[in-house]
Amino acid sequence: MTSRKPRVVLGVGAGIAAYKACELLRLLTESGHDVTVVPTPDALRFVGEPTWAALSGKPVAAQVWDGVAEVPHVRLGQTADLVFVAPATADLLARAAHGMADDLLTNTLLTARCPVVFAPAMHTEMWEHPATRANVETLRSRGAIVVEPASGRLTGKDTGRGRLPDPSELFAVARHVLARGTAGGDLAGRHVVVSAGGTREPIDPVRFIGNRSSGLQGYALARTAAARGARVTLVSANVSLPDPAGTRVVPVGSAEEMRKAVLEAAADADAVVMAAAVADFRPADYRGSKIKKSEGTGPEPIALVKNADILAELGQRRRAGQVIVGFAAETDDVLANGRAKLARKGSDLLVVNEVGEHLTFGRPDNAAVILGADGSRTDVARGAKEALADTVWDLVAARLEPPAPDRPAVHASTGPPPPSR
Hints:
Layout (H helix, E strand, L loop, with lengths): L6 E6 L5 H13 L3 E6 L9 H8 L15 H8 L2 E7 L1 H8 L6 H8 L4 E5 L3 H5 L1 H12 L3 E2 L3 E4 L5 E5 L3 H14 L10 E7 L3 E2 L5 E2 L6 H12 L3 E7 L9 E6 L2 H12 L4 E4 L6 E3 L20 E3 L3 H8 L5 E8 L3 H12 L3 E6 L10 E8 L4 E8 H15 L22
Parallel strand pairs: 1-2, 1-3, 3-4, 4-5, 8-11, 8-13, 11-12, 13-16, 16-17
Antiparallel strand pairs: 6-7, 9-10, 14-15, 17-18, 18-19
Helix pairs in contact: 1-2, 1-8, 3-5, 4-7, 8-9, 9-13
């Protein structure tokens, strides 16, 4: 007996980024999802009905008057496992936040009791306008996941925040939300900081001291946090990976640059996860020109000095209720070294994993033991790095203080909570 395909409603707003939703639709359908495309009427000015129908293999409707006998304005939302809106324009966000139902998509949003994700795309000024920000917060307070837009080239010559994230990254968000169901928004309203990659400490303009970190685990942490509704700041050191959807990426190079960026971002963060491989030492002196090889003599020794301990400093500076997570990459006596590091650093959780030349670094999988300052231990079997990331966020979420009394209750849809039974 075959299992039912996950039902996804792909809502499309009237923005130039609608063409990118075609790629998202292709990724969803080719991975076995049953996708119904519901564009707004004006969205069809950007991408026509034949394109959506051909890619989805299903008829496309934009008005409540289409196929009235099947009551689509109610049935689509009732039967969906996920409603994913991309692009979500400023106008569409406003109509959704105010409960308007003037087309098939906004009707579907009102009837949906499944997870709802909005991927905004608009000009920077529109995204930053107080009205849009208020509408986003309203939607988030009701349990919807609003993915932060990316920065980059916009319509015409403009550049800034407001670009629709890469379709492959939006697809990753959709898969994650579907996997977690209504539990997917448990970090809504939270600001989390994640560090990723490996720092490089320059010796001269050509050479540096570095490490093997690829940033894959840190990016998995950022991606899964965004898919769970968090506002994510990703401090990224020397990583060649696409920006995870819904994150603000702060690129850095050295340990000191990472220290400054992490401490600044952590000032108002609910949680900080230090997944980056930060160099313990740096050259005491930076050579302004390339060091030349001297014939007949050995290389000059390079004196090293200690870098600041960012994780320990976070523990000393933590604000009330903030959860701090460290990583310990060990090659021997893994658990003993991990427990000692947890005691020294003052973090709430420490993710301890064994590393090596062909182990963990650059690989898509990971295994770890997560130690808690409360004496807890959580073993994570080898698997996808996203699975480890989700376990970390599960443990973080359990340690976060309850939302402030004035924060609205979170439900799994953009509408009111379902009636009690």
